[in-house]
Design brief:
Blueprint: H1 9-21, H2 31-39, E1 43-50, H3 59-63, E2 65-71, E3 82-84, H4 92-102, E4 106-112, H5 118-128, H6 136-142, H7 153-163, E5 166-170, E6 180-185, H8 214-232, H9 266-273, H10 281-294, H11 312-326, H12 332-337, H13 341-355
Parallel strand pairs: 3-4
Antiparallel strand pairs: 1-2, 4-6, 5-6
Helix pairs in contact: 1-9, 8-9, 10-11, 10-13
Length: 373
């Protein structure tokens, strides 16, 4: 979703982390299919191609790809003479000139930069090392100023069509810079060996995909764990956060590596409750006050004050400020019964109507003026 212009860079980073963690669509590393070939030798060849099209700000063409698995008898593949886009300082003009003048049977180029994903790569780099700006609005202004490079894959398909070459593109290496490999074949459609299957390093299957059920698992499991712990521990001993891990990090001696344990973050906490922004002025006021008292920047209306680390003394501070702002008498019991932003906001609305009723309006003749139409 599009963030507000005044969203801070830190809030943006948290939002992206939460979105990635809660992604419900299965995302597969292209190298999964290479590993699949080592598991099933009846797969004789694999094609991993970017999508066709010129739209550069379209998820379909930016990040999705087509995979074709060839099953059956071994098919001879062509031996490709490879060059490197960066090391050989190539350009689209140079490639076109070489094809026209030398007319090679095969031309292979490794590491062609992908123009479609250049801005996305820049944003991804900013997630780890943001520039010296404070808001998302400033990031948006900065992005168009960044240098762009690379070739849209569609340009190469068109080049091959114009010069009589069959074009093979592959995203098999799935490098973090979004580059792809290119082979131009002058005659025929002999399968191209972009990689040697014997050099593929096997990894656990789970390393090739995300976990699309993780967000739902956190939403269901964490509240159950929290409820169980609440039954066993007094309030002052309750953990402030619960972080779900696939496995505990271990030292070489087999003990839990406490230094490697991830710090509880806002993104993971929001997953357990389902983050919702304030929907009215009372909720917005509560979120602001809770954030100032608890020292937490991002709070949703479903968040529980005590689960965020609040206690009775901090609750008393909040009660005092809310009583002054809304002119209602709040008690600690109100806080205990309505511990979330949403529920406490509703309670304040009720107290305002009960404790500060509006004077009744009685119609009298003095309220009207005589006149003619």
């Amino acid at each position: 979703s599009r963030l507000a212009a005044d969203t801070t860079v830190e809030q943006w980073q948290q939002q992206v982390h939460q979105s990635v963690t809660a992604e419900e669509e299965l995302v597969i590393d292209p190298r999964f299919f290479l590993a699949l070939q080592t598991r099933f030798p009846q797969i004789t060849s694999i094609e991993i191609e970017p999508k066709r099209g010129y739209a550069e700000n379209n998820e379909l063409t930016q990040f999705r790809y087509d995979v074709t698995l060839h099953i059956g008898s071994e098919i001879p593949t062509s031996v490709v003479p490879w060059c490197n886009w960066q090391l050989d300082q190539l350009s689209l003009t140079q490639i076109e000139s070489q094809l026209q003048q030398e007319q090679p049977e095969l031309l292979g180029i490794r590491g062609v930069p992908n123009q479609r994903v250049q801005q996305a790569l820049q944003v991804w780099q900013w997630l780890a090392e943001p520039p010296a700006v404070e808001t998302v609005s400033q990031l948006r202004e900065l992005l168009p100023q960044q240098p762009t490079a690379g070739i849209n894959p569609e340009q190469l398909w068109e080049l091959g069509q114009n010069l009589g070459y069959k074009v093979y593109l592959s995203w098999w290496e799935s490098s973090q810079d979004g580059c792809y490999d290119l082979v131009l074949c002058r005659n025929g459609s002999t399968p191209i060996a972009f990689w040697d299957s014997e050099t593929v390093t096997a990894k656990p299957w789970t390393d090739y995909t995300n976990n699309p059920l993780y967000g739902k698992l956190v939403q269901k499991l964490v509240p159950q764990v929290r409820q169980f712990v609440q039954q066993k521990l007094p309030n002052y001993m309750m953990p402030q956060a619960f972080v779900l891990l696939n496995a505990l990090p271990l030292t070489p001696n087999g003990k839990v590596d406490r230094k490697a344990l991830p710090k509880p973050d806002t993104a993971t906490r929001n997953l357990s409750t389902g983050f919702t922004l304030p929907r009215n002025p009372i909720e917005a006021q509560l979120v602001q006050i809770w954030g100032e008292v608890l020292g937490i920047e991002r709070i949703g209306v479903k968040d529980n004050f005590f689960e965020l680390g609040g206690h009775s003394l901090l609750a008393t501070q909040v009660i005092s400020r809310l009583s002054d702002i809304f002119s209602v008498e709040l008690s600690l019991q109100n806080f205990l019964e309505y511990p979330t932003v949403a529920s406490l906001a509703q309670n304040i609305e009720v107290l305002e109507m009960v404790q500060n009723p509006q004077p009744s309006f009685t119609e009298t003749s003095d309220d009207y003026e005589e006149g003619e139409l």
